[in-house]
Specification:
- By secondary structure, this protein is mainly alpha-helical.
- The chain contains three helices and two strands; from the N terminus they run ααββα.
- It has a two-stranded antiparallel sheet.
- The two termini are 19 Å apart.
Length: 59
């Protein structure tokens, strides 16, 4: 069971990146923007918000 948790639990770096994407989405009004030189839009925003919400529930 621990192996499964280790594989599917997001790393601190992944959570930090998701938080950066969420912040960029909010700052950009939800329009397409760039984060660390990469274009990000609605699908990325939604995935990042879900990851951040999950991380907050489990911490």
């Amino acid at each position: 069971m621990q192996v499964i948790n280790d594989i599917f639990t997001p790393t601190a770096e992944e959570i930090a990146q998701a938080r950066a994407v969420v912040a960029a989405a909010e700052a950009g009004g939800g329009t397409v923007t760039t984060v660390d030189g990469r274009m990000r839009g609605t699908p990325f925003f939604n995935a990042a918000r879900a990851l951040v919400a999950e991380a907050e529930l489990t911490s």
